[in-house]
Amino acid sequence: MEYKDYYRIMGVERDASQAEIKRAYRKLARKYHPDVSKEANAEERFKEVGEAYEVLKDAEKRAAYDQLGANWQAGQDFHAPPGWDQGFEFRGGSSRGDGFSGASAEDFSEFFESLFGRGGFAGHGQSRQPPQGRDTHARLVIDLEDAYEGASRQLTLKHAEPGPDGRPQIQERTLNVRIPKGIRQGQHIRLAGQGGAASGNGKAGDLYLEVEIRPHALYKVEGRDVYLDLPVTPWEAALGARVKVPTPSGKVDLKIPADSKSGQKLRLKGRGLPAKQPGDFYVVLQIAVPPATSDAVKDAYRELEKVADFNPRTGLES
Amino acid sequence: MNAKLKAISGELLEEDVELSLGELCQVCRLSQDEVLELVEFGIAEPRGRQQASWRFRGVTIRRIHRARSMQSDLGVNMAGAALALELLEELERLRIRLARLQPAGGKGQE
Fold it and tell me: What pTM was estimated for this model as a whole?
């Protein structure tokens, strides 16, 4: 089991005051709260910070932890020395009474448990499974094509369940979830009864999946609408053209009207994400300028300069 | 365990789900008074004038979960949670717009 450096996790010195520890915790809790944070490992960090605070905010637990000594390194293989906690009395379970304790005891590490027992009790292995299962949340990352076509995706979820000895064990389970056609970024699928298990005859909780559409190499998505940046030549933009354009539902022949401007959006109605009112597909024109790499091209540019009488900066003159 | 897992279908909160006051209480495991307080602060926003005919959009469930977890974990009060929710939702919209306006993958034409 790995030693955890609770002071380092909280970013405080070993001699930090209780007030400093509380301040550090509040700041980190806001930073990593899974409902607020966009950090990649927010949930993991939030649990870690909650566990560290559970120990450091409690004078007795902190003193017992300090007694292990300052020479341990985070991640070092750790075994609690026999009798290490003699003379300490840990009262009450995880002290959630202050209305300000983010971590839930089921999430604490093996290191924490070896020191303080489950849920902050020394020596109690009692299951604290709620009568009704907890609602759980997970993220489901899909490809844009899945959102267009609908799909099934396998999802492996980890959760803690009490083992035969009442101690929590990490269990994995795999679900095969149907992704409805037309689903959008940030939408939620509720799977009734797939959340946390209940004790006894209680009802299992629900599982909520938040859908995230993986960034696509070509397309950008906003709501139901899908965007493609389309490079075009100056003559295609000026004279008009027909070009083949990829869309997630297949290639289309697009007419670029004469006298098009860079950044102009051409709408393909109903070719966005499917729905009762489907989204639109927007082609955003990006005029690409051919490099003047040969004399012939240079001459052509000079000729254009002569005949076009064009100043794109007229709007900047006062 | 090589058998093919049966695909399970859920409900899309944003589209398939609409709830009455009673149903919302049940799904979120809250008392009616607690939900009424959430309505008062705009965390849950029903359609309809009479309480008996109130309908809540499915996403209300997610808003309530978020607000309650911010309350218990970050120590914000109901008004603070409502404000945080609105700002977070705005932030999410802006992030999506920003992602759309940024050039794709850093590659492509200069």
Answer: 0.76
Nearest CB to A186; choose among B61, B69, B92: B92
Q: How far apart are CA A79 and CA A96, in angstroms?
A: 28
Please state, in angstroms and rounded to a whole number, the distance separating the CA atoms of residues A281 and A87.
70
Domain A6-120 in this protein, CATH class = mainly alpha
pLDDT digits (tens, 9 = 90+) for A225-246: 999 999 999 999 999 999 999 9
ipTM value for the complex: 0.83
Domain A6-120 matches domain A219-316 at the CATH topology level: no
Tell me if residue B78 falls in helix, strand or coil: helix
pLDDT score at A96: 39
| Residue range A150-186, pLDDT digits in tens | 999 888 887 766 677 766 677 788 999 999 999 999 8
Residue pair A183/A211 in contact (Cβ under 8 Å)? The answer is: yes
> Which among A38, A178, A215 has the least Cβ separation from residue B8?
A178
Task: Give which of A101, A188, A191, A210 to mutate to test B binding, by max B Cβ within 10 Å.
Answer: A188
3-state secondary structure of B72: helix
Asked if B11 and A99 come within 8 Å (Cβ–Cβ), the reply is no
Alpha-carbon distance values, A54 to A7, A125, A130, A189, B57 (Å): 12, 18, 21, 33, 37
Q: How many beta-carbon pairs under 8 angstroms link A with B? A: 115
Question: What value, to the nearest 5°, has the Cα angle with vertex A223 and ends A221 and A224?
Answer: 85
Residues of B in Cβ contact (< 8 Å) with A192: 10-11
Q: Which candidate from B10, B96, B104 shows the least CB-CB separation from A177?
A: B10
**A219-316: which CATH architecture?**
Sandwich (2.60)
pLDDT beneath 50, residues of chain B: 1-2, 106-110
Q: For residues A25 and A17, is the Cβ–Cβ distance under 8 A? A: no
Output the pLDDT for position A84.
Answer: 65
